[in-house]
């Protein structure tokens, strides 16, 4: 019985990591679609999001079945409940990648971003891609030291998000209302993406150490 | 043992309803703060959000304790897991109300919204307030017919959200970049608020009927 449960918990961890790899691929492709105005790439991200949603549903059902059949307590119970929450965050990160891709698709054949804000969003894209990569690694290895790097990239995303407002509001360039809307929404999507990465990192840290970390999570 | 568990489940339901009443009050005050440029009201919403967050944390801990101590199965298990998810949505709705209030506070003593988009946001405010009210009632009564009304108001919020884009992009009025940013973000906050209301309604419907409803939830 215990062996079966251990195997189930391992499978749960592997599925979360697999889901996270899909999110990684989604945010990376979405960012490239946005920066390069690549329609096919944007459409792939949008079409593939249902796979992430499907894994979430399946994973959630298995968590509930595990709770019912194995009646875990203590740390085992915490692992299953945490898996439920992590899958919800990953699903949301997939949605946000899809939203980024949708903006790229809507503006095609134009690029959504005026060229002078491209460097800012290239940084956001790279930070978000690193967050997603490290979330996968944290889920695979439970190496809590990586959590700090996720928090750092999230801080960077917050700063870049603030910079998007400075650009649209205080900069010298004048954008069309459509560009202001797109920059505002894209900045928000990236900022939220970072928040969910932090939330997942908090949960893994809590699982491994039993402590709330200095960032006040989970 | 069973009596204790039933009492615990009842208490859980009451706490969700109490949390929902706070969300109701938050979104209602936030909208009034926004539409009337009322600084004190905005500050109250922002200051009170931590109460919603605290209830979420406490409720989540109790759910996990219930799972560990009572080892519920079948419908009881589903109730506890659903409570975990509903509290996460309510917490997020509280955050979104706080974001609306924060825009109102930032623009004070000006009003954030240009007068010609006020009617649009008054409708969003009213729809969101109705969603929040009905979420409370659904949680209190488990009357699944109310779910339909929540879906209807969410559809309305989606339409109003689309209308905010038409206003900023296609309308005759010309707004400052700050106004475009504020309208874009506020529209997004209200739209997400509706989504969370729908998600809660789906979960209650699923709990009561065991069926996924026509909206594809939960």
Automatic annotation (TrEMBL), chains A, B:
Keywords: Cytoplasm, Phosphate transport, Transport. GO terms for biological process: intracellular phosphate ion homeostasis; negative regulation of phosphate metabolic process; phosphate ion transport. GO terms for cellular component: cytoplasm. It comes from the Bacteria. It is found in: Cytoplasm. Coiled coil: none annotated. Residues 18-102, 122-204 form the PhoU domain. InterPro entries: PhoU, PhoU-like_sf, PhoU_dom. Its main location: cytoplasm. Homodimer. Belongs to the PhoU family. Plays a role in the regulation of phosphate uptake. This is Phosphate-specific transport system accessory protein PhoU.
């Amino acid at each position: 019985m215990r062996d079966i449960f251990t195997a189930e918990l391992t499978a749960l961890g592997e599925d979360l990591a697999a889901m996270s790899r899909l999110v990684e691929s989604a945010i990376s492709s979405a960012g490239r679609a946005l920066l390069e105005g690549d329609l096919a790439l944007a459409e792939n991200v949008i079409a593939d999001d249902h796979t992430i949603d499907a894994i979430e549903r399946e994973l959630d059902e298995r968590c509930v079945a595990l709770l019912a059949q194995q009646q875990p307590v203590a740390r085992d119970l915490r692992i299953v409940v945490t898996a439920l929450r992590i899958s919800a965050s990953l699903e949301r990160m997939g949605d946000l990648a899809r939203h980024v891709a949708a903006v790229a698709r809507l503006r095609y054949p134009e690029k959504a971003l005026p060229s002078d804000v491209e460097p800012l969003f290239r940084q956001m894209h790279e930070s978000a891609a690193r967050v997603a990569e490290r979330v996968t690694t944290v889920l695979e290895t439970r190496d809590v030291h990586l959590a700090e790097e996720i928090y750092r990239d999230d801080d960077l995303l917050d700063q870049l998000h603030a910079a998007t407002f400075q650009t649209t509001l205080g900069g010298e360039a004048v954008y069309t209302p459509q560009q202001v809307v797109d920059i505002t929404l894209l900045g928000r999507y990236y900022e939220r993406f970072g928040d969910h990465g932090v939330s997942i990192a908090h949960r893994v840290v809590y699982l491994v150490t039993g402590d709330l970390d200095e960032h006040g999570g989970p």
